Fold this sequence. Notes:
Blueprint: H1 15-25, H2 31-45, H3 47-50, H4 69-75, H5 78-94, H6 98-111, H7 117-133, H8 137-150, H9 155-167, H10 171-184, H11 190-214, H12 222-230, H13 265-274, H14 281-290, H15 296-309, H16 313-324, H17 331-347, H18 351-364, H19 369-381, H20 385-398, H21 403-419, H22 423-439, H23 444-456, H24 460-473, H25 478-492, H26 495-511, H27 522-527, H28 531-542, H29 548-570
Amino acid sequence: xxxxxxxxxxxxxxxxxxxxxxxxxxxxxxxxxxxxxxxxxxxxxxxxxxxxxxxxxxxxxxxxxxxxxxxxxxxxxxxxxxxxxxxxxxxxxxxxxxxxxxxxxxxxxxxxxxxxxxxxxxxxxxxxxxxxxxxxxxxxxxxxxxxxxxxxxxxxxxxxxxxxxxxxxxxxxxxxxxxxxxxxxxxxxxxxxxxxxxxxxxxxxxxxxxxxxxxxxxxxxxxxxxxxxxxxxxxxxxxxxxxxxxxxxxxxxxxxxxxxxxxxxxxxxxxxxxxxxxxxxxxxxxxxxxxxxxxxxxxxxxxxxxxxxxxxxxxxxxxxxxxxxxxxxxxxxxxxxxxxxxxxxxxxxxxxxxxxxxxxxxxxxxxxxxxxxxxxxxxxxxxxxxxxxxxxxxxxxxxxxxxxxxxxxxxxxxxxxxxxxxxxxxxxxxxxxxxxxxxxxxxxxxxxxxxxxxxxxxxxxxxxxxxxxxxxxxxxxxxxxxxxxxxxxxxxxxxxxxxxxxxxxxxxxxxxxxxxxxxxxxxxxxxxxxxxxxxxxxxxxxxxxxxxxxxxxxxxxxxxxxxxxxxxxxxxxxxxxx
Length: 578
């Protein structure tokens, strides 16, 4: 392990660069995790030196002292003697003799005049580097903290402390340190950005797991429900009432309900589905199940489906389990229940269980296009792109008119080409998207996935047009407004427009929930530079998440924004204003 090239000790003069990063280069709402994706291509250009491990101490080892070394030491100033001790420590460090290196750095700290803050901070940081090699994380944090106290913008010390904090499980403090590092380095170092992304995902996953378990169920918008059911082509429960299931319909005065044959709760639930009166479906299915009616299996599956839609996976699973194990249930019902349970496991980030369910569904219903479509989505998440493409191909073979499968196959091919750094295949995938939206102009998902690929390619204007097409087709799809809002932040750093679109998404979801509408204006908070209240609005958006995975992502964004506000406070900076 070689000692690093000598560098000048850092000083507090890094402050203007810090301010510039906050005020110009850092979209606050996107946070570190999203900014990492945005800056990834630019960061690759400057990897070289900046991607190196920060393991070595600062300053080079001095030549071996001759016979006059002792006399020379006596005549040296305290700072010179401290530097000599540090150089000797660097030699021991390079040789892997960390105890001796630590002793030398300790001598350097003792000898160094207290007013020499830059040098003293370097000695503490070097000793922390030696402790790091011994996996003494508490000592690493203590010495790095001393270094940062002396030199608040000391990147090496901040990053080393971040790594040690992560080792001890202090994710919040780790995130604050690595956020500071990312901003000071203007998001050009892959190593620090990857650590930030890792910690954000861990925090988001932990918080979402606890929150989602205890969340209040909320019915999503009618548009979201329609989009969900449109992802199935072999779903019996989502089909309209068949001829003979209805009798003469007689709307009541309020137009909320209609009479259907007999007293079947399931048939009433199906009627409510056609009327988009979704709030009554679970209770009607329960009546069918409790009475042991003719449509018990269908009612169990429909009730489970709506439990999943409102985010109550705990209630959905027993119903799905029961349908899957019912010998008298049709193959189509059992396969659909397996697909939905597999998707539930996918959202809960249990890929092994998810894969088992999709495979079982394929075994019992080999020609069910939905199995391959949804399993393909899982394979994309698992970065098993070739297998995903194979599943989408099988789905398309069974259902050539499946616009969703066509679009998602293009996205899988794009991911494969992009991660493989194959420009010709990337272009081929982009041409594929053009073909899909030409053949299926009413498929909002095609435009949305194409927009994501265009954003990756930094073709922001074209991506914005694709999101406009989505909104034109599905004006009540809150997710599209969120993606378009984030694009404005990433593309133009247009904070006002980005937050206005995200506010619109929250307004759409609130419109269809039983909660009191929230009238607060995020934009107002940012005009005042009040990021804390804006973050509070993002916490409200977390309550509207449709899945644990979506909630984890929102937590990651919120935590990234919060970390930046904490870092700004520590450095005496005001949050950016419009």
